[in-house]
Automatic annotation (TrEMBL):
Protein's recorded name: Aspartate/glutamate leucyltransferase
Limits of the N-end rule aminoacyl transferase C-terminal domain: 114-237
Organism for this UniProt entry: Salinicola lusitanus
Boundaries of every N-end aminoacyl transferase N-terminal domain copy: 24-94
UniProt similarity note: Belongs to the R-transferase family. Bpt subfamily.
Gene: bpt
């Protein structure tokens, strides 16, 4: 890849090969069909390629880099948090304080039976109506234990108890929150472990002097994605340019 391409994600993308899926049921909006654009699986997912495609709205799932490409719908919006401008709300500060007793550490993306056991419990309890039900070891391996140089697992523990795992990619311009699963036991509900994982990743990006935390896609009409609006300021990709999103309460 030439040096001229290094700072131009559009030019880098033109040098790559992509494929489109056939229309399939949308995972987010009931009754709609979706089409997905994905990078040729034969292409090497080098860090600089991944960085460039992330700036164009691509996400990673296992070994695949993809983004929605639906002719009649543009509901899926890529969003990211500019971490230096982020200030936790009063509710988020309480959440941080409530979880002061949780420790975090980075782990490699290798299969861990304890991680899988937590993942399986989480999917059965929270996503029994989703695409990943029923969980299986093979599915988990393909999704979250691919050996990429940028891929890590962020482990959350309360003493010896595994509370949550956040699959996180370390990019040149930010962290990308791939997937988080946590203990679904109601006794931990007040800890809001999914929200705490995002707040922890924001702080880790700040410590690494990385400007952004990428949160994947946001859909205004999808109730399950509304939590992403709680992290302000939020930027969204619009016509190839990242712009600040106006908070819903200010509209």
């Amino acid at each position: 890849m030439s040096s001229d391409n290094a700072n131009n994600p559009q030019r880098q993308a033109r040098d790559l090969r992509f494929f489109l899926t056939v229309p399939h049921p949308c995972s987010y909006l009931k009754g709609r069909e979706a089409t997905t654009l994905f990078l040729d699986p034969e292409e090497t997912v080098a860090p600089e390629v991944y960085d460039a495609l992330t700036l164009l709205g691509f996400r990673r799932s296992g070994s695949n880099l993809y983004r929605p490409h639906c002719e009649a719908c543009s509901a899926c919006t890529s969003v990211r948090i500019p971490v230096e401008d982020f200030t936790p709300s009063r509710t988020q500060r309480k959440l941080i304080n409530r979880n002061r007793d949780i420790t975090t550490r980075w782990r490699p993306t290798v299969f861990d039976e304890q991680h899988y056991s937590l993942y399986a419990r989480y999917i059965r309890a929270r996503h029994a109506d989703g695409d990943m039900f029923p969980p299986s070891r093979e599915q988990y391996r393909m999704f979250l234990t691919q050996a990429h140089p940028f891929a890590k697992l962020l482990e959350f523990r309360l003493g010896d108890h595994l509370m949550a795992v956040a699959a996180t990619d370390c990019l040149g311009h930010g962290l990308s929150a791939i997937y988080t699963f946590f203990d679904p036991d109601p006794i931990f509900e007040r800890r809001s472990l999914g929200g705490f994982a995002i707040l922890s990743q924001i702080e880790l990006a700040r410590e690494r002097r990385l400007p952004y935390l990428y949160l994947g896609y946001w859909i205004r009409a999808c109730q399950k994605m509304r939590y992403k609006q709680d992290y302000q300021p939020l930027e969204y990709l619009n016509g190839g340019r990242w712009q600040r999103m106006v908070p819903a309460k200010a509209l």
